[in-house]
Amino acid sequence: MTEISSTRSDRVKMVRSLSGRSARSRTGRFLVEGPQGVREAVRYSPQSVRDVYLTAESRDRYREIVADAEAARVYFHVTTPEVLEAMSPDAQGVLAVLDLPDPGDGPAAALELALAQSPRLVAVLSNVRDPGNAGAVIRAADAAGADLVVLTTNSVDIHSPKVVRSTAGSLFHLPVVTGVPLDEAVAALGLGGLQTLAADGVGAHDLDDLLDVAGDAPEGVPDLRAPSAWIFGNEAWGLTEAERGLADAVVRVPIRGRAESLNLATAATVCLYASSRAQR
């Protein structure tokens, strides 16, 4: 454990720079801000954690983070509140610097490796650009018991601070594969034994109706009890006709009241929990 007291130190500048994508790419590191995210990172991905920074008050308040860090031999530093604020205004007394995942042989190979684990429930985000939405869907997928999240080409950087914060630690609970073109992802998911369901308001199938026949769906009707990959589109324009055409079926979430639609994260949560319930 070391103490850091200068807001102008090179270390402070380096940590602060990780809020930018170019610095993350250059250094191969990213930020995790806040006690929830840091707790889960240290507990579930300690091999990726380079350093933990916390104030003296946070050290005493979040003893489980310190204990897990010590058990994993993760280096941690006690700083003043001013130093932590200089590193990140969203630290809430605790932050960590982690190594970015090894890209290995690229997105396609990463997806193939994830599918080798025979996932039964997958969330696919196509051209999702909003950090808060992406993080919220990763969190919802984790809560619903999904086995994998895939973000297609042109989606948001999942290691940006807002995405990481929005996952509330779920980023460290399940595999997240990025950078795969949607058509390639759908093809790989099909080969992996998953039906692909596009979530869209123009869908021919009503989600409630599918729940009613789960486990005994008639021919031509998707069975929610089967291994499934849900495809969710961009926040503004959803899925294009061509993108919907890649899926085995298009499913709409019923709107009972006067709302025009559900936002992305809410719709994804509803769909993922419907499959999770059917697969129990």
Q: What is the topological layout?
A:
Blueprint: E1 2-4, H1 10-17, H2 21-27, E2 29-33, H3 35-44, E3 49-55, H4 56-61, H5 63-71, E4 75-79, H6 81-87, E5 94-99, H7 107-115, E6 121-125, H8 131-144, E7 148-152, H9 161-167, E8 176-180, H10 182-191, E9 195-199, E10 205-206, H11 207-212, E11 228-232, H12 241-246, E12 249-252, H13 264-279
Parallel strand pairs: 1-4, 3-4, 6-7, 6-11, 7-8, 9-11, 9-12, 10-12
Antiparallel strand pairs: 2-5, 3-5
Give descriptors for this structure.
280 residues; alpha/beta; 60s Ribosomal Protein L30, Chain: A; Alpha/beta knot; 2 domains; seven-stranded parallel beta sheet; five-stranded mixed beta sheet; 13 helices; 12 strands; elongated; RNA methyltransferase; RNA binding; SpoU_MeTrfase
Short précis:
With about 280 residues, the chain is of the alpha/beta class. It has helices at about 10-15, 20-25, 35-45, 55-60, 65-70, 80-85, 105-115, 130-145, 160-165, 180-190, 205-210, 240-245, 265-280, and strands at about 1-5, 30-35, 50-55, 75-80, 95-100, 120-125, 150, 175-180, 195-200, 205, 230, 250. The strands form 2 sheets. A 7-stranded parallel β-sheet has the order 8-7-6-11-9-12-10, sandwiched between helices. A 5-stranded mixed β-sheet has the order 1-4-3-5-2.
